[in-house]
Amino acid sequence: MKIRENLENRERLNYSPYATLSMYSRGRVTEEEPCDIRPCFQRDRDRILYSKSFRRLKDKTQVFLTPDGDHYRTRMTHTLEVAQNARTIARALRLNEDLAEAIAFGHDLGHTPFGHAGERALNEICPYGFKHNEQSLRTVELLEKDGTGLNLTFEVRDGILNHELDTLPVTLEGRVVRLSDKIAYIHHDMDDAIRGGILSETDVPESICNVLGHTNGEWLDTFIHDIVENSAEKNDIVMSGEVEEALFELRAFMFKNVYTNPVAKGQEGKAEKLVQILYQYYMDHDELYPDYLKRLLEEGQPREKIVCDCISSMTDRFAIARFHDYFVPKSWEVL
User: Fold this and answer.
1) Do the Cβ atoms of 48 and 54 come closer than 8 Å?
2) What is the CATH number of domain 3-21+79-322?
3) Helix ranges restricted to H, 126-267
4) Which of 132, 106, 88 is nearest to 50 (CA)?
5) Is 330 exposed, middle or buried (0-12, 13-18, 19+ CB in 10 A)?
6) Number of H helices and number of E strands within the chain?
7) Cβ count within 10 A of residue 46
8) Per-residue pLDDT of the chain in tens (335 residues, 90 and over written 9)
9) Cα(197)–Cα(219) distance, integer angstroms
10) How far apart are the first and last CA of the chain?
11) Residue ranges in 35-143 assigned as alpha helix (H)
12) Of 72, 98, 185, 302, which is most buried with the most CB atoms under 10 A?
C-alpha cells in the first residue's frame, strides 16, 4: 500500500508553499518505521489523543474552580476549542491541519490541577520553577507511556513548547496554535463569565466593540477572519494592528474583571495551599510515586521535578482525594 505516500504527495500539491509538509519533517528523537497509512503528524495527533494525559484534561480546571454547572469549560474543552480554531485557520491558509491539531491537542498536557493556581503554586515552591508549557513537553518526551514518552516529531514538540506569547514556534502551524489558544480562552472564558453572572457583553468597553463586534460570537469570528486575511500568502501568522490591539485590550479587560475576580477566583488560595502541602508531603514520601517515576528518580532525575511530575499529572478530583487521604482524620468506631 502507498496510502501514506499518496497523502504526502497530496500535501505537496495542495498546500501553501509556506506549509510544513509531512515528508520533510525533521523527524523523531528515536527513528521509527513510518506508518503505511498515516503521515507523521497525523500519527502524532493520534498518539496524543490516545494518551492518558490527554484523557485527564477532562477533570482539570480551565478558569472556574468547582463551578456549579455542567457547561463550564474544563482543560479538555479548552483544548478542543483551540484545535477547532487552529484547524479552521490552517485549512483556510492551506497549512498542515494534522500538525496544527497535534500541537493543539498536546499544548496543555502538562497543566496542573486547579489551572493556573496550581501552576503558580508549583512555580513558587519548586527550586527549578514550573511552567506548564515546559511540563507539556516533558510529558510527551519523558513521562507518557510509563516513562518512555510518545517519541513525537520535532515540529509537534516545538509547537507544544512555544505556544506561549513570549516564545515563537518555528512552523506556521505552531504559530496558528499559539494565536488560537489566546482567542479560544478569551472567547470561552467570557462565555463562562457571562454564564456565571460575573459580567455581561455590555460591560465590554465600546472601544473594543467598535473593532471586534458586540457579541462574544462576533469577536471570535473577527479574530479568525482577521488572522486568515492578514496571513494569506505570507510566511508568517499575523493579525492587523487594529484587531491585535483590541485583542490585547480585551485580554486586559478579562484579567481585571474575570481572572482576578474574587467571585470567580475566590477558592484559588485554598487550591494553591493544597498543592504546596502535597508537594512537601511527596518530597518526603517517594514510596508513593508511581513505579515509572521511581525509576526516573533512580536514573538521576531531580526529586523536585519528580514531585512536580507527580502533582501536575493529577486531576482536580484526584488531588483533593489525596489531600483528604493524607491530612483529614478518618472516623473510627469502638468494636
Assistant:
1) yes
2) 1.10.3210.10
3) 132-138, 144-147, 154-161, 172-195, 206-212, 216-231, 241-254, 262-265
4) 106
5) exposed
6) 18, 0
7) 15
8) 699 999 999 999 999 999 999 999 999 999 999 999 999 999 999 999 999 999 999 999 887 776 666 788 899 999 999 999 999 999 999 999 999 999 999 999 999 999 999 999 999 999 999 999 999 999 999 999 999 999 999 999 999 999 998 999 999 999 999 999 999 999 988 988 888 888 888 999 999 999 999 999 999 999 999 999 999 999 999 999 999 999 999 999 998 888 877 766 678 899 999 999 999 999 999 999 999 999 999 999 999 999 999 999 999 999 999 999 999 998 766 65
9) 19
10) 70
11) 40-49, 52-56, 75-92, 97-106, 115-125, 132-138
12) 98
The C-alpha cell of 180 is what?
A: 488560537
Domain positions in the chain: 3-21+79-322
Whether 16 and 93 have beta carbons less than 8 Å apart is answered as yes
- The closest of 260, 95, 77, 41 to 184, measured between CA atoms, is 77
258 touches 63 (CB < 8 A): yes
Asked if residues 121 and 272 have their Cβ atoms less than 8 Å apart, the reply is: yes
